[in-house]
User: Fold this.
Amino acid sequence: MNQLTKPTEGSVTWQTPSNIALVKYWGKHGVQLPINPSLSITLRQSTTTTEIKYQTGSDKLTVDFLFEGKPELSFGERIKKFLSAQISVYPVLKELHLKISSSNTFPHSSGIASSASAFSALSLCILSVVRKISPNQGERDFLEEASELARLGSGSAGRSIYAGYVVWGEMKEYKAYSDYFAVPVQTKIHPDFQDMQDAILIVNSGRKKVGSSAGHNLMAGHPYLKARIDQARKNMNDLHSVLSSGDQSRFIAIVENEALSLHGLMLASNPGYLLMEESTYKIIEDIRTFRSETGVPLCFTLDAGPNVHLLYPDKEKGRVKGFIKDHLIRYCSNGQWIDDGMGEGPRELQA
Ligand code: PMV
Assistant:
């Protein structure tokens, strides 16, 4: 007897962090494939928790989605579309009724990109459900497969499946890297980079003026496309050497170059657009002054928005937090900042 003729039900829950890219993924081709390799750190504080209650025996895939306890129809539709596109790979999906509940640790309107944590948590849950009800689909490495699924939902989400420094995108120098899924970085990490902290200063908590999907699309036909791909590849290779040698000043130069280049690409897109705000510029200038006056190896990176991520080694926590509280806090919207950093990666929560 087909085991699916007998309805089964159960639930799975995963908690998954967001990540911040040091070398940025910007531009894609084909089905969510990156035009250049990227490297990120997976955070600990900014997480999404997703629970899926599933029931087999449905005559089609149905999805109810609750965000922070309330129905969220538009994201529910996006999830349904994403999962419907996976039915050819996971036929069992078409017989499932899914009740998905999700919540974030970071404030809803903090301007933190939630798609990386959201799609990685969702993909880990979906793959757990699929493997529970059709165990013969479990031949491939679980995390690799979850990363591929997450990438199809949101490119950067594929990197949130692993803790630490994570790479997504082929590099001819490293055979393990793939355009289809992310993997942990394939180099030894110097002790000075093993406990990287990330203070996220919230400059503007509103929705982004231009979303990342539109931004990726503007890279097609971008006048700097070829130069950008070359730059990202070089920064990836250099960052690999720096992560193992422990060279702080090269690390800072590469990370800040990537952040400003990302926004430079937006400025030079057609149409061009600007996501940095006055406070973003002020924070950047003040970080550079603080660094040259104190010698603290503090640097910044930016996502596709105005908020600023301050990266620094754990041993500098006291001085950096003092600098934020005494000075930078004036640029934060309602004094908001998130004390984040590298963490343990996703974890499955028991019911
Ligand atoms: O994963 P997406 O489609 O939200 O794009 C993420 C793009 C950046 O955050 C700007 C860079 C990156 O590599 O995460």
Remarks:
- The first helix runs from residue 73 to 84.
